[in-house]
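fyi for ur records
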Amino acid sequence: MQYSGLDEFLKRQAAGLGKGPAQRPLAMIFCEDQAEVDTTARHHMQLGFAPVLMFMPRHLALAPDVAERVLRIDFDPHAPGAVPRAVSRVASAAPGCWMFYCYNAEFLFYPFCETRSIAEMLAFHGEERRDAMLTYVIDLYAGDLGAAPDAVSLDDAWLDRSGYYALARPDPANRGHPKERQLDFFGGLRWRFDEHVPKERRKIDRIALFRAAKSLGLRDDHTFNVEEYNTYACPWHHNLTAALASFRTAKALKRNPGSSDGIASFRWRNSARFEWHSRQLLDLGLMEPGQWF
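which gave:
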């Protein structure tokens, strides 16, 4: 089903969001280009998200099998502030519903996702009195840019196995003292090619999974206006975290004329082939199972 914009979608569908016996979480996918649009949708439907909302410009195409299973919303994701506003509006329309957002060519992985549904994982997370989950955006890139000049290749995907670090997140309202249980995380292509990435875009942490609320608002830096949502764990023990395997940064670096010509390959001594399995991400310390076994 297709809608002419977010206003029409909310007018016709807001009452039904988050309803039903299954209580499955909702996914929002913001499509910036045609790269792996269908694959992204199928991946998240397979994890158990429903409905899946595809926010995309009219000129982008969907495969027939995907189009019949998703809700397509005409949308310009490149407009300033458009994505945070859309996420906030959908969250306000369905308070209490678990939601997820990502961009095309990004793929969510969480501990044991091969055998456990997203609803099972979020049910456990909610029982631990958590309303949001930290996700790390792990950059993927094609191993051979000659064969994949846009840096996107599912069959030849690589990631950095090291080079990730965290810094305390200062609180401007508290004389710059660190915020409690909040860190800024860095690494991947945004770290290795930081001269081409604006300082405010270098973080790799994102609160991609959250429980919607009327007053909840997403900010431009992928944090929320409720500070507890931005924490990596509760005060008592470590909690689950997840990872977003993402070609988005690699695509941007190869699309940008200021960086494209200077990058012959993204691979370096700490590159590893991506295995498309949660076990690899757990072994590399790129997500945390917490108390969920």
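The longest helix spans residues 82-93. thats all i got for now
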